[in-house]
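Predict structure. Chain length: 160.
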Amino acid sequence: MTTTDINQQIQAFNKDVAGWGKRVRNQTIFNARRLKHPSPKSTSHDHESLGDSIGEKTYKSDGEIDCIGFSFARHGVFWQKGVGRGYVMQNGVVLRGQKKRIGINKHDKRTSFVATAGPIRRKPVDWFNGLISQEIETLADIVADHYADRVINATRMTIR
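Prediction complete.
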């Protein structure tokens, strides 16, 4: 196996992984734009800015992609979890809460959230995690296929 063969395999792997990342990014943008936000105060601008903020980036080590990451506006995390504006998550459950000062003097700005009674008007909106869970198997198949080819090709190496 020559260096050219290895470089071609790495380029094919990078192309397939980057293609997977772009496809998943496009699906998350679609999910974000069709969201019905749990807060009655949300605007259509919130949906567009989340969709517009979604990015995807690959990281390479020795010329080969070894990490892929997604970025998006901070409020996307709040939508995913169903928290914010007085709603907190404790032990995986969304609760209504209020900020309570726990500092020992006026200069100590520490606060904590304390759960309070009241109706829960927020629900988690799965626009990201579910999609990643579904698509991760496809990425695993891409990686397995490429590495299986490399192992088979490596067994053909001989010393002449």
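Summary: The mean pLDDT is 82.
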